[in-house]
Design goal:
By secondary structure, the protein is an alpha+beta fold. About 30% of the residues lie in helices and about 25% in strands. Helix 16 packs antiparallel against helix 17. The two termini are about 25 Å apart.
């Protein structure tokens, strides 16, 4: 955890005014740049010191064995792990033969700024070598949103006190040594030298390298080219040997005579293309980048982000930390998916190797809804990737003796990579989560072509899974037994409420789609009888309810379990999974992350307002939030039941998950779902926005005392909408598009291009619920006010 504030609080930037080597790895994640295809961790230009080197290409992985003490039928035999590919960020500097290394000499000043509007990372440093030579170094890097294969770096060196001789080495380096990431199971498995060299070609001021992975057989190419501006006698040479290609620039500089180098990078990979084809691909991409030039790439980046923020910005008055954090989060959510283009959005994006670079259910449940309303094409691409993995998911279902498809719990390329089936394969809810994201996307975009070509096949296949996984009991009720819900401290439960209400929606929506697209459904071999069986199962779905306590048990029998002994659990014993056996966790009332409460949010139509209030109050004292996925959902539901101060507290936790390193593992990459969840906590929580599977969009905003104004923009059904909220009233306006029917606190309204204001009715909440001892969220009243 970052114990002291490492970053200045600013509305549109994340600024580090001093280099903190003890949190270097965390800062590398925070300062990571990506476009969904390329990911560059925020390592120092010179490469050392580092916390964790990282350059990633979406879906480039290596295979590794999954050993078991005792094997079993259907267990996956190998896993997939994201790898650190060729590093093109490296620019080393020698000052009168002394290498720039911040651990030596004197670092007079050091600043790094992640500009959320420009999409750049800028570093400014003034360093005095051990021999007393002072230089000022400025570097700016970007990963292009407009040229998918391209990254670029502007690197400038100038003397401070007198003439100096400098040598700049710009490199491509493969198979870097990686540090030990520790034994925490949430961290990735380190792989040594995963790349085999196929080509290293240099020419003039450029170089290109091609490698192939040892086991997965993926071919990776990287290229660099440069422009250099310096004194007339500047010397430039290029060389390439083994896993290193290097451009060397030597110059004698005066204080008024800087050396300026622009480095253009291009990356590509393929599982099928030949070495020459991939080599030519990156050479062409870097040539296009050089033609556009540094200034052109910077201008394109700014224009792209200006358009994004025009439809996605959230303004928060009264809590400057949350204001910065939500923009930081949205920037990284955009980076994770903007140019992924039918590749997955991993849990850490491309900011680090945490969770082996895998994609989980949180992409569809937390990230895609945010993108659906702010950058919908990225959500569509992610869903098309899921569709592309359906053949593998069908094979997985067949191995389990089930119909339809069973999507992998964790994966990179589609194959199941979870070695612990009670919290992996048994978490079948991922299939309904994917269906839910698809339905929300279609509701928001009204894209009938996407609905027919992508959503229909997804929903038919997942409905078939649910129909074969569940069964009708003797009373005709449809049961889904022996599954694991979102709460990973419970496993193999019967009739998990979240799973059942999501499967219910999945099957009912599939039946509706079959009716709308009868011709296409015939091509999927869906008969009217099969569709009717889905509807029957959805209608008869078991939704457990404890009439004694007047709450929904998380699953059948959950409220009969003994409660966890929270009073005798110390703060250093969290997360519980690292200190207690799963056997003990599974048989107690303790919740790792919102499960039943998540059902209240995503299937709010299935519960009454009174049920939501009672359920929320019951599960608060049981939920320990050992997952970064919990706080945002608890914030949404706290706001809905009127616990506005608690909603603000949970909002702060979700938003500051990585800027504060609250889960102690930001070094391995950012928590993209929690960052997306901060947007959800503001828009769906305090903004009261509800849309998705029931059709239409509505709002029921309310603000806590610590926020004086909330304003947000989003896209919905070809409109760009702005909602502005104060404690007393909400104002709605369509910025682009036709008038839109909506609702404000249950009252039907029409939003048009004229700003219209409506009063916010009061609410009388019940007593503020308690949390487990030591797991209370940090109060925003203590740290969230305007400076």
């Amino acid at each position: 955890m970052i114990s002291q504030p490492a970053f200045n609080v600013e509305p549109w930037a994340v600024r580090e005014c001093q280099l903190h080597l003890d949190v270097l790895a965390q800062a590398e994640s925070v300062f990571a740049l990506s476009n969904g295809h390329i990911g560059l961790r925020g390592n120092l230009d010179e490469g050392e010191p580092h916390g964790l080197p990282g350059t990633y290409l979406n879906s480039v992985y290596e295979l590794r064995p999954l050993p078991y003490a005792e094997g079993g039928y259907g267990y996956p035999e190998s896993g997939q792990t994201v790898i650190n590919v060729t590093n093109g960020k490296l620019i080393r500097l020698l000052v009168d033969d002394e290498p720039l290394d911040v651990r030596y000499g004197t670092l007079r000043s050091h600043e790094r700024v992640l500009d959320l509007q420009a999409g750049t990372l800028t570093r400014k440093a003034e360093w005095v070598s051990p021999a007393g030579c002072a230089v000022r170094v400025t570097s700016t890097r970007l990963v292009s949103f407009t040229q998918r294969a391209v990254a670029a770096i502007l690197y400038e060196v100038e003397p401070v006190d007198g003439p100096v001789r400098v040598v700049v080495q710009s490199e491509l380096v493969a198979n870097e040594s990686l540090p030990d990431l520790g034994r925490d199971p949430r961290t990735t498995a380190a792989l040594e030298s995963p790349l085999i060299l196929e080509d290293n070609v240099v020419d003039s001021m450029s170089a290109a390298m091609v490698h192939i992975t040892r086991r997965s057989g993926l071919r990776v190419a990287a290229a660099m080219d440069h422009t250099v501006h310096g004194p007339d006698d500047t010397q430039v040479s290029v060389s390439g040997v083994g896993d290193v290609a290097r451009l060397t620039v030597a110059a004698q500089l005066r204080p008024d005579q800087p050396l300026r180098l622009v480095k253009f990078l291009a990356y590509g990979w393929s599982s099928v293309r030949s070495r020459p084809a991939l080599h030519d691909q990156v050479v062409a991409a870097v040539a296009a980048a050089r033609m556009r030039g540094w200034d052109g790439l910077v201008a394109d980046q700014r224009e792209f982000l200006d358009q994004f923020w025009a439809g996605a910005d959230v303004e928060v008055d009264g809590d400057a930390e949350v204001q910065q954090a939500v923009r930081f989060g949205m920037f990284h959510v955009l980076q994770a998916g903007a140019r992924a283009e039918q590749r997955p959005i991993p849990a850490k994006g491309l900011t680090g190797p945490g969770y082996d670079g895998h994609v989980f259910w949180d992409t569809e449940t937390f990230v895609l809804p945010t993108l659906t309303y702010t950058y919908p094409q990225a959500a569509a691409d992610a869903l098309r990737w899921r569709q592309a993995t359906m053949p593998v998911a069908k094979e997985h279902a067949e191995r389990l003796g089930l119909d339809g498809v069973c999507f992998a719990w964790r994966t990179i390329a589609g194959e199941e990579c979870s070695g612990y089936w009670p919290a992996g394969t048994a978490a079948f809810h991922i299939n309904a989560d994917i269906a839910d994201a698809a339905l929300r996307y279609v509701d928001a975009t009204q894209d009938s072509v996407f609905e027919r070509e992508t959503v229909l096949p997804l929903l038919v296949a997942t409905a078939r899974l649910w129909r074969s996984l569940g069964h009708h009991d003797l009373d005709g009720r449809f049961r889904i037994d022996g599954v694991t819900g979102p709460d990973e401290y419970s496993a193999l439960a019967d009739n998990n409420v979240y799973t059942n209400v999501m499967a219910q929606q999945n099957m009912a929506a599939a039946a509706d789609l079959v009716g709308r697209y009868a011709y296409d459904a015939k091509g999927l071999q869906v008969s009217p009888e099969e569709a009717a069986s889905w509807r029957d199962a959805a209608t008869a779905m078991v939704i457990p309810y404890d009439h004694r306590l007047q709450v929904h048990p998380q699953a059948e029998g959950f409220t009969d379990h003994a409660r966890w002994d929270f009073d005798h659990t110390t703060s250093d014993q969290y997360p519980l999974l690292l200190h207690f056996p799963y056997f003990d966790l599974y048989r107690k009332q303790v919740v790792k992350q919102a499960d039943l409460v998540l059902a209240l949010h995503l299937r709010g139509d299935a519960f009454t307002a009174e049920e939501k209030a009672r359920d929320f109050a019951y599960y608060e004292p049981l939920t320990v939030r050992d997952s970064s996925l919990s706080a945002c959902t608890q914030s949404v539901m706290a706001a809905e039941v009127g616990q506005l101060e608690l909603a603000h507290d949970y909002l702060g936790e979700a938003a500051l998950m990585d800027l504060g390193d609250l889960e102690h593992n930001t070094r391995d990459g950012l928590h993209i779902a929690s960052l997306a969840g901060a947007w959800t906590a503001l828009v769906a929580g305090l903004g009261g926005m509800r849309a998705g599977t029931t059709g239409g969009i509505s709002f029921a905003p309310r603000l806590p005392s610590g926020i004086s104004r909330l304003s947000f923009r989003l896209f919905y059904r070809a409109r760009r909408i702005q909602v502005s909220v104060t404690p007393e009233a909400a104002t709605y306006r369509v910025l682009d598009g036709a008038p839109l029917p909506s609702a404000h606190h249950g009252k039907s309204i029409v939003i048009d291009d004229q700003a219209t204001t409506y009063p916010i009715p009061g609410i009388v909440p019940g007593p503020r619920p308690r949390q487990p001892v030591g797991r209370e969220p940090i109060s925003r009243h203590l740290g969230g006010t305007e400076p």
